[in-house]
Amino acid sequence: LEGILEKAKALKSGEFKDGKREPIAFGLECLKVGFVLPDKIEGVLEKLEADLKAIPNVTEAEQAGMTLL
């Protein structure tokens, strides 16, 4: 997961804030990452999700939460 985290940090679709590994079950882990995105640009979240899914060995990317800063 460290290689995926490094590639997520390098994405230009948003400002990377944090990343952490979390256990799911039976030894499986997921990587949760946080980004800051501009709220005035249409489609920015979809672009970030597509860029995350384009990282090798990433099978799914989804929005888990959102708030305004």
UniProtKB/TrEMBL annotation:
Molecular function in Gene Ontology: translation elongation factor activity
SMART domains listed in its UniProt record: EF1_GNE
UniProt keywords, alphabetically: Elongation factor, Protein biosynthesis
Domain Translation elongation factor EF1B beta/delta subunit guanine nucleotide exchange: residue ranges: 1-69
Lyase keyword on record: no
Pfam families cross-referenced by the UniProt entry: EF1_GNE (PF00736)
Cell wall biogenesis/degradation among keywords: no
Assigned protein family: Belongs to the EF-1-beta/EF-1-delta family.
Name of protein: Translation elongation factor EF1B beta/delta subunit guanine nucleotide exchange domain-containing protein
UniProt organism field: Candidatus Iainarchaeum sp
Lineage of source species: Archaea, Candidatus Iainarchaeota, Candidatus Iainarchaeia, Candidatus Iainarchaeales, Candidatus Iainarchaeaceae
